[in-house]
Amino acid sequence: MPRGRYSLHDPHDHTPLGEEHFHCATGPSGWRYVSQITTPSGDHAGSVDLTLDDLGRPIRLELHAASWQVRGAALDGVTWVRTDPSGTHATEGNVPAHSFTGASPAFLVATARLLRPAPGSGAVRTRLVAFTPPVLAPRTLDQSWALVNRTAHATDSGPLTVDEYQVNDLETGEQHAVHLAGDVVLSAPGIELENLESPPSAFTTETDF
After folding, report:
1. Distances (CA, A) of 196 to 95, 187, 201
2. pTM for the whole thing?
3. Long-range contact pairs involving 77-86 (C-beta distance under 8 Å, separation at least 24)
4. What pLDDT, on a 0 to 100 scale, did the predictor assign at position 91?
5. What confidence tier does 47 reach under pLDDT thresholds 50, 70, 90?
6. Contacts from 91-96 at CB under 8 Å and sequence distance 24+?
């Protein structure tokens, strides 16, 4: 069960945004990721709880940020309920999209798991609903993912396979690279892996959460 810490920063000017303390695990029915997010001063800023089925579809999502809350799942596309900080107003949403995305590294692992592009096979297109802190307002976007490189690195615990994806925003044309090892993000815009207490899990490994 990988457990560790990501540092988060603005991908444009590198302003520190905080840290995400996470643990995640594969299992016979899919993958689960749980994290707590802190500000640069160490205050609590939110949380992520994401569960995927064995095909990479989100069967449960719960986000918290600045007292806003989102609960969602793959249902007739993707469906969610967004609740305001007072808890008195809840807005339901539904979009014919494939999955969710947002600021958490969890969503990069989830999208790669859902699309599973093969090396050299070209880009795979997807439609996602993004929830971005601090107010978690929904925004629908289109991306394409291509697996451009796969390398094996020798480690003390055995070979570690690192996948490099090229991700394109199909509205703006912006491109960026995402490096994943199993269910852990090694690097991506605005994300750096600072600490990892155990090796990444492979999705073929069945582990109790």
Report:
1. 35, 13, 12
2. 0.94
3. 78/129, 80/129, 80/131, 80/138, 82/131, 82/136, 82/137, 82/138
4. 96
5. very high
6. 93/129, 93/138, 95/127, 95/129, 95/138, 95/140, 96/127
Token reading at 32: 């689960």
Residue 86 CA to its chain's centroid (Å): 27
Q: What is the DSSP string of the chain?
A: --EEEEEEE-TTT--EEEEEEEEEEEETTEEEEEEEEE-TTS-EEEEEEEEEETTS-EEEEEEEETTEEEEEEESSSEEEEEE-TTSS-EEEEEES-SEEEESSTHHHHHHHHHH-PPTTS--EEEEEEEEETTTTEEEEEEEEEEEEEEEEE--TTS-EEEEEEEEEETTT--EEEEEEETTEEEEETTEEEEEESSPPPPTTS----
Residue 55, by phi and psi: left (phi above 0), alpha (psi -120 to 50) or beta?
Answer: alpha
Stretch 10-22: mean pLDDT, rounded? Answer: 94
At 82, the pLDDT band (50, 70, 90 cuts) reads very high
